[in-house]
Amino acid sequence: MTIVIGVGNDFRRDDGAGPAVVQALRGRVRATLAATDGEPARLIGLWAGADLAIVVDAVRAEPPDPGRIHDLGAETAALAQRPVTGHALGLGEAVALGLAVAQMPVRLRVLAIEGLDFGFGRGLTPRVAAAVTTVTDRIAASLASHVSPNPSPVRESRPS
Amino acid sequence: MTHRNDRTLKVGALARVEGEGAMYVRVRGADVEEVRLDIYEPPRFFEAFLRGRAHTEPPDITARICGICPVAYQMSACQAIEAACGVTVDGVLRDLRRLLYCGEWIESHALHIYLLHAPDFLGYPGAVELARDHRALVERGLRLKKAGNTLLEVLGGRAIHPVNVRVGGFYRTPARTELAPLAETLRRALDDALATVEWAAGFEFPDFVHHHEYLALSTDRYPLEEGTLRSSAGRAFPAADFEENIVEEQVPHSTALHARFTDGGMYLAGPLARYSLNHDRLSPLALEAAARAGLGAECRNPFRSILVRAVEIVYAVDEALRIIDAYEPPPRPSVPVPAREGTGHGVTEAPRGLLYHRYDLGPDGLIRAARIVPPTSQNQAAIEDDLRQFVTTRLHLDDHDLTHHCEQAIRNYDPCISCSTHFLDLTVDRS
Fold it and tell me: How far apart are CA B34 and CA B388, in angstroms?
């Protein structure tokens, strides 16, 4: 089973990048699609048992370079924090917790998009919107070449 | 720290609470001069955002205020709009609302107990470290949380910001066969819930008692989705009189408003108040679990709130099973709620306490004014008061230990600062 998980809040501007990628992948990939808020137990519930989980999340970086894309593995993602979220636990804790309770996908890939504006409201800033298109194409291309013996149907856990 | 008896304790970003905020404590000699819970997440302006919207929209819009307790927002919004329109939703639809709310309590309480609060009692910095040493325990917490999540997905359409709730009821009600697998999940969850109470009962609780006036809903069942407000000092008033009894004040250090009784007294809402005012309305199984855990009819030690939450999980699972067992699909998924000019009030028991909504509807059915009072802003004054008492008896501790104790004291209340604006950093000023 392959799952693509968009993490973020589409009512917090660029924090909606993850859910936007999931939305754009509809009909383009044979994978389970899900959007969530980044709360660790929910993330673990979504990716546990998957052969491949691709998590797309918006991040802040210093110095900032909005729209820059970081392609990370589980080890690097475990160091990540999500200062954007209103929750005390983020993606880094989700990976660390998933590893501690052995509820991780066989492979985890994290695509992080640097955001600019995390204020209230809908809509992505132009460079983040462009990055969403790039990440969507990159995931679609990688899944097209990813041979899965039992491709999963497209299912939306939380439509954005 | 500059001087043993004059110091400032500052926590710049409180961990393991929901939202963003900070805490500031100023100590002069043996006196704790000031304790502030600083909330710096920008105000959410939801009340203004709702003006001009249709009367059918608040359940979906206000659900977005919080990812942990969206059902609470939906239920208080529905109740208030329906009151404004003179419609009562009862029978099976009322039971289904209660069932959905049980899912949110299970999920929210399991998250707080296992991932946020238990590490404090077991000497771990966080859930990850706890999980490395006690994998089976954290797995049990994740299973419980997932059971609540599943309930929300089945009945609410999805776990975060459910989409199946509408003014008047639901968009779609489930067939009995759809609830059967859920009942199986909940039966397994009941064992996990009972084991959680037994486990938490073995924790060592600091000796601390507070005397706040407790305020909770009261009805013929353990309060969730409806009821009359009742306090430990004998106050009783309906949701419609909330604003006559409770005022919100702006405080300089916070973007959340502080709520108090109009006569000036502070109060505490949430699990401790709910339990202490409604202990006799728990199900026999939850009552038995509470008694075995050593909880009496009233609980005034906020550190034992983890135990009360565990008992409430038992209740919520038990109640959900009761509703599912008795369930017969209603003839229609909702009742009509035609808009009319008027004002409606709604109060329900969010996992963290009372959540009040008021809507003023114009003759066109559009919202003229909205008011939302979340539990954390109601509890903030009582939390600060507890911290003041708590710090006064622990001034012998160094800043590191005192900071840790204060953070633990704050987590007793599972404050959802996202909701109350509206999150945490700690400063202890001893200079």
Answer: 8
B14, B128, B161 member nearest A96 (Cβ): B128
**Residue A78 lies inside a defined structural domain of this protein:** yes
Residue A159 lies in a domain: no
B66 is in an annotated binding site: yes
For B272-322, write each residue's pLDDT tens digit.
Answer: 999 999 999 999 999 999 999 999 999 999 999 999 999 999 999 999 999
- Domain of A108 in residue numbering reads as 2-144
From the list A39, A97, A100, the residue facing B67 with the nearest CB is A39
Quote the ipTM score.
0.77
- Tell me, yes or no, whether A99 lies in a domain: yes
Interface test with B, best of A82, A87, A103 (most B CBs within 10 A): A87
Q: Is residue B377 part of a domain?
A: yes
The response to whether B410 counts as a known ligand-binding position is: no
Q: How far is A57 from chain B (nearest CA, A)?
A: 17
Residue partners of B210: CB distance under 8 A and separation at least 6 = B268, B300, B301, B302, B382, B385, B386, B389
Residue-wise pLDDT tens digits, B60-78: 888 877 777 889 999 999 9
Minimal CA separation from B296 to chain A, in Å: 32
Q: Is B372 annotated as ligand-binding?
A: yes
CA atoms within 13 A on the CB side of B321: 17
Tokens linked to B114: 């296992």
Q: A interface mutation test: which of B133, B138, B142 has the most A CBs within 10 A?
A: B142
Count of other CB atoms within 10 angstroms of residue A69: 16
Q: Is the dihedral of CA B79, B80, B82, B88 positive or negative?
A: positive
pTM of the entire predicted model: 0.87
| Per-residue exposure over B69-90, b if at least 16 CB sit within 10 Å of its own CB, e if not | bbbbbbbbbbbbbbbbbebebe
Residue A76 CB neighbours (<10 A): 14
Question: Which residues, numbered 154 to 183 in chain B, qualify as contacts with chain A under a Cβ-Cβ cut-off of 8 Å?
Answer: 158-161
Q: What residues pair up with A36 in beta bridges, in sequence order?
A: A7
Give chain A's domain count. Answer: 1
Residue in B18, B115, B161 closest to A86 by CB: B18
In angstroms, what CA-CA distances link A87 with A11, A42, A84, A90, B258? 15, 13, 9, 7, 22
- B17 touches A: beta carbon within 8 Å: yes
Q: What is the CATH number of the domain that holds A90?
A: 3.40.50.1450
B1 within a domain of the structure (yes/no): no
Asked if the structure places residue B52 within a domain, the reply is yes
Contacts of B418 in chain A (CB under 8 A): 86-87
Q: Is A25 helix (H, G, I), strand (E, B) or coil?
A: helix
Domain that holds residue B409: 6-430
**A24 in a domain, yes or no?**
yes
**How many folded domains does chain B comprise?**
1
The DSSP letter of residue B302 is: G
Chain B touched by A158 (CB under 8 Å): yes
CATH of the domain at B257: 1.10.645.10
